[in-house]
Structure formats: structure tokens, C-alpha cells
Amino acid sequence: MGDFTRFAFALLTRSHLLLAGCARVLGRCRWFVVLFLRHRLGEVQLGDSMDTYDWTCPFCNRGATITTESVHESTTIMTLRNAEGAQALESSFIVCPNSKCKRFSLSVSLLSASQNEHNRWEARKLIQTWQLIPSSQAQSFPAYIPKVILDDYSEACLICDLSPKASATLSRRCMQGIIRDFWRVKPGRLVDEIAQIKDKVDSLTWDAIEAVRKVGNIGAHMEADINLIVDVEPNEAKLLIGLNEMLLKEWYIARESKKTRLSSLVQLAGKKDDVKKQNKT
Ligand SMILES: [Zn+2]
Question: Where are the domains of the chain?
Fold first, then answer.
């Protein structure tokens, strides 16, 4: 992790509200938007140590704090003469800490490599990452969420590394589907639909939704003005996927579990009432 990123995280810890405001003002400064989203989505949990981080298991969907005990990483350096120069291959296993799951995820990354001042080979710049197990990072969501929304979400996950721009476009459409279905907004341009829910959701969520709309727009309208093309990095496409996951959980799943809790309360109250009536007669 670069010094700048570390510095930015330190700043975020102190005043992420302030930074969220900055991100809005500096709409074009994507670093801030990316950092803000990463913090907001819990992808990076700012704690005392950067050795641990929050993670959601793709198999059991449970959140867990990952420590070094759950991770196995190794690096191979390829120094054979070739057109691209020395390469590093990093593999990373993460074992789910949940005792009922314990499944492992596996990803590999290719990086450039060079020697440091002590002639030791080190991995440098990330070239590409492949998620091998499971093959897609899509989480499983309950069937009461409309299928068309879940299809866009799964496809955005599947294509994330291969085509971040296409993935961002799908994430944007997925988010539009969520907003239309969940909030019953009047259909129109996404920017207007988002404006309709401004007073219904908290301001941080709203800012994150706006950020996704802006990045997703690049994919959706890239033919309209070639000057507008800005590459969407795979990690940015992943953040957009993360936002949709957050909305699905905080809106659909939270509403459903509230419904379940309340209806069991009503049933319980009904039973007590029946007992009371029986006792009277
Ligand atoms: Zn698990």
C-alpha cells in the first residue's frame, strides 16, 4: 500500500464526513470518491491495525474480520528472459473463519517485478487479478429480490475483471432497478430518479449512489463523446458492485427481517390475548 493511500486513510479516520463533502466538491477527483466509497462500503475497515480487515465470505455470506491466521499468501518470481521483463505471481487463499463454513477462496495476481537495492526480487505494479475460487464474487441473495436486479448484479460481478467498463454499466443499471423497485420512483433519467430519493436516504448513502451514477455513466454513454472516456479500473468496478450489495442488504433484507420480526411479535401478542380471553370465560 502506497504512502499516499496510507496518508489518505489516516485522514479518513479523523474526518470522513469532511472528506465525503470534499469528494462531492471534487467530483472529478476520483481518488477521493474511491476512498470514500471503500470506507463507506466497509471494504476497508479503519482500525488500529491494517493487518486485519472486514470481509464477507462468498460461500456463506457471513461477515468476518480477517487476520493473518485466515490468509495464506505466496509469491513466485519469474526471471526468464522475455519481452515483458520479470514477473511476479501472487496467490492468496482466504479461509472463512466461520466454523460452520471453513471454505476457501483463491485469487491470483500478476505483477511486474524488479530487484531492490539488496538485489532481492520484489513484486511491483499490479497487472491483473483473477478470482479463481469461487469463479465469480457474486454473493447469493434471497429470491424475494426481483430476478432482473439479481441478474444484472451477477453479470456485473462475472465481467468485473474482464471489462470493468461493462461491469460499471451493469452496476449502474442494477442500481437503477433497485431504486425503481424499492422506492417506486417515477421512471426517467437516472439522475432525476436519484434526486427523488434524496430526502428518503441518509446523505452518505446518497453521495455514494451519486458517485456510482457518475462512474457508470462513463460506460453507458461512452460513444456519445469520446473525450468523456475515462477508464474504469477493476477495483472501481468492484466498489460499485459493493455499493449494490450494501443497498440490497440495507434496503431489501433489512425490510424483510423487520417484517418477520414484527409479524412474530403480532402473533405472540395475539396468542397472549387468546389466553387472557380463555381465562375470563
Ligand atoms: Zn463462509
Answer: 1-57, 70-133, 140-267
